[in-house]
Write a structure and sequence with these properties.
single chain, 216 residues, two-stranded antiparallel sheet
Length: 216
């Protein structure tokens, strides 16, 4: 974990920003046109939020079992807000042609395909996808391509661009990428990768029979 935190994506901070984020999140939510009943559920209660904690999950399928950094954001100032924004954006991800809900869904897709002797099955993997997502660019793509209401992008920025956590009594801010552990990160990563996927296929001389994208 100490080695992971040497990545420039993480910056040590002295002050705990929890109270500040409670206030700014409350302001952002109150300034949005969200229904008042939903607002009451999303606004963090003053001085009741928790500082997110970092822990690692070993990737046992890879040599050396490297750790996947997870920011446990439950109880943080933006956790409920992130869940709400993810719920709003998720339908866009599910309309993507290559969207795969889970392993059973992938099996159902493959059952509809006829495999020829000259077909090739290809798999691509993005190393540390979430922390590699350029969040500013990703939100700009979502804004232009899917045209959600303006306040949704504002609230998404409040969640994604204020990632912080504590590990071994030291607080850090994540200044690059989307945090694993936030309810919003998977849908943002999915929609960003869909844009890359669309461009790659459009400029490729090879044509695909079917396409399945799984974001973890």
């Amino acid at each position: 974990m100490t080695k992971l935190l040497e990545d420039p994506a993480y910056k040590k901070i002295v002050r705990d920003p929890t109270t500040y984020l409670e206030k700014t999140s409350k302001t952002a939510i109150n300034n949005s046109p969200i229904d008042d009943e939903i607002k009451r559920h999303l606004i963090p209660k003053q001085k009741s939020s928790k500082c997110p904690k970092l822990y690692g999950l070993p990737k046992v399928q890879k040599e050396g079992a490297p750790l996947r950094p997870i920011v446990s954001s439950v109880g943080s100032p933006v956790h409920q807000l992130a869940k709400h924004v993810a719920h709003v954006l998720q339908p866009h991800a599910e309309k993507v042609d290559s969207y795969v809900r889970n392993a059973d869904h992938l099996i159902d897709i493959l059952k509809t395909q006829t495999v020829s002797p000259d077909d090739i099955l290809v798999s691509f993997d993005v190393t540390s996808l979430f922390t590699q997502v350029p969040t500013g660019e990703a939100l700009e793509i979502i804004k232009k391509k899917y045209k959600p209401e303006e306040h949704i992008i504002t609230l998404a920025e409040q969640c994604i661009k204020n990632t912080y956590f504590i590990y071994n009594d030291q607080r850090y801010r994540q200044i690059e990428g989307a945090p694993m552990g936030s309810p919003l990160s998977p849908v943002v990563a999915n929609l960003f990768m869909e844009e890359i996927e669309t461009e790659a296929i459009a400029t490729s001389h090879l044509q695909h029979k079917t396409l399945a994208e799984v974001c973890r």
